[in-house]
Amino acid sequence: MHLALPGLHPTPRGVMFIRHQQIILAIVLLLVGAPCALAQESPAPPAPPQTPADSSSSKPVTRSRAPVGFLVHGTVFDQVGYAVPGAELHVRRTGEKKFHWSTYANSRGEFAMRVPPGNQYEVVVQSKGFSDATQPVNAADGLDEQSLVFRMEPITGRKK
After folding, report:
1. CB neighbours (10 Å) of residue 77?
2. Which helix (H) or strand (E) holds 36?
3. Residue burial 13-27, b: 16+ Cβ < 10 Å; e: rest
4. What does each C-alpha distance from 52 to 46, 55, 56, 57, 69 come to in angstroms?
5. What are the tens digits of pLDDT across the range 56-96?
6. Is 89 in the same domain as 133?
7. Same-domain pairing of 31 and 83
8. Which residues form the domain of 14?
9. 133 and 86 share a domain?
10. What does the pLDDT look like over 97-144, one tens digit per residue?
């Protein structure tokens, strides 16, 4: 479909000019027509009114934003104070040998995990080239989180 406009000659540049005009015109028509189509849609039906009997017999819904578990979070640093990304963190109940929860430190050495409240835990951090580090966590003291900072020591006496 070509538009025949007076004063334009059928040169390649003129043809491109006409095509751009057609595209722009189509876009403008779509943009102008879209709000008109949206304005013609019928509004959603109103909600049915509540009767006094309905509101008095139903109890208000309360939603608790309480955390699901005890939050253990913190940061893992090396002996100089640089973050240790990718450090493995394992959590077990105090006195047990098996780890039940694990996570990794992010690129800034930060970690966070939730454990069930009401217990004593040990958090063990492991990373290649460093000695393991352990810290206790008391999730039975009524608080909902504990922050830890680990300073990893390099393994000494390695053969080169």
Report:
1. 17
2. helix 12-39
3. eeeeebeeeeeeeee
4. 18, 5, 6, 9, 39
5. 555 565 565 655 789 999 999 999 999 999 999 999 999 99
6. yes
7. no
8. 9-38
9. yes
10. 999 999 999 999 999 999 999 999 999 999 999 999 999 999 988 889
